[in-house]
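To whoever is covering the structure queue this week,

Two jobs came back overnight. Logging them here so there's a record in the thread.

Job A:
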Amino acid sequence: MINVLLVDDNRTRIDQIIETIADASLSPEVNLVVCESADEARLELSSKYDLLILDVVLPKKIDSTPHASVSMSLLSDICNARKRYIRPTLMIGLTANLDELDKYKTEFSKNVTVVLDGSIYSNDWRNDILGSIHSLIGNQLKLIQREDDKFLVTIHGIRTHGQWQQDLKSNLDKYSRDFKSIDFKYGFFDLLSFSIPPLRNKNTNIIAKRIARTLEENIDKDIHIVAHSYGTYILSRAIQLCSEQVKIKSTIMCGSPLEHNHNIDHIIMRSEVTINECGTRDSILVLARCFILGLGDAGRVGFSREHTSQFFNRFHKGGHSHYFDQKKSPNFYQKFWLPIMTTGAKPSLHDEREAYFAEGLLDITIKTLTFAKPFFYVMIFYFLAISTNKLFLRWFDF
């Protein structure tokens, strides 16, 4: 993630820059801080910024008269080694008042990389700023490529070979070829074993132990985990088996069939950030919640817990596997996951939920079927027992 400080009192231009960054899908990789006066900027400049975008004609305080001398004074303080301010890596001047700039152009140009014509009716300056941001991100990624202490763990769902795991790794290699990874695979999981809790838990424990052992062996690395569908169920068990020394940089769950009230404290406590990606149109999870004991639809409705800096649900329009759709550019994990893993970008909230007709009726139906689910299993086992008994009696009579 790169840190950008925008010092400008022109609200239209501020909105244009925010829009430019969002349209380029760079919001997860750019931490943009906006100040509308020189005094506000001075407070911020005690922190390190990669890019400073400075309005040439700026007010000293909010609602005071803008003047180029104010910006010149701020720039002089930034570049003074005796002052407490930290000079940004790259500085760009921005103004639509070129006449005012002429009085200070020589001095201003000594310290900034370039001065752009920031007319709100032009796109040229927006493209130049975007180019500078891309350059800074590219330079940051080159530094990351030298690191070899990052470790990715992926876990796929049932009835799949997890092709997305290799696709994710291939995309990750474009940013850092030294990013170590391991894809946990366990083949197709038959529906009978999946539907009966004792059988499901037996198979889960076998895989969870392998994952826990791997996490223990890589305790000295920055661990990132991505688990899809039933992989989140396995992950929950694996984290329970780990020692307290295992710490995780980021945990990303998507399409999770865990129950929405499932306790994931053990995952959140081990991770710097835990994200639960939800598909609002995930019909597979509706079926899981309605008909399979011990499972729910946390990957559709989210986990029922408060959002914090360590955990939040994100809601997207899509089904059970839309996270791995390669048709869009950037694709889902290029937009939402790779910035977190490669640049340490702070994940942002995302919510595409919309109210729709008969939403209440569907919710009541799902809750009713969920409540009745244990009785369905009792009835099934009852009829199986009766049928088995009849077959036994016929065989005995024979």
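Job B:
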Amino acid sequence: MGYIMELRKLVGSRPLIMTGACVLLCSHQRLLLQRRTDNGLWGLPGGSMEPGETLEEVAIRELLEETGLKAKSLELFHIFSGQELYYKYPHGDEVYNVVTAYVCTAYDGIPKVDGDEVQELRFFSYSEIPMELSPPDKPVIDKFLERVF
């Protein structure tokens, strides 16, 4: 998150519009979620865009960094923005997220926790998604579950 960290040096914790991508990685009617280290809640692999990246590149990079998994293909799911995507991090930074969500069903690798941003990885059946979802990921997961049910 180099670009955002550089901006934070200039603007402090004031709200930023943060563009990024996330991945709904699906396998056998299950969704991969990660327990985040910053808020202890479950969320999706993803993160913010660096200058020069495409949104697809962000999704692929973040999935690999956070889970050790390499996407073979991505399908555009939906773009999320607006008040519902506002988030105040536990340390005080505020963002209005603009998130492009991708579905991935073909990937390589074995899930591996990065230990920095992620403390646990787990596949959940669509009917057993935990209630403790990270606020910016909840609208994405809710819309995905509407589609599959």
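Note for Job B: Residues 55-67 form the longest helix (13 residues).

Please reply-all if you pick these up so we don't duplicate work.
Q.
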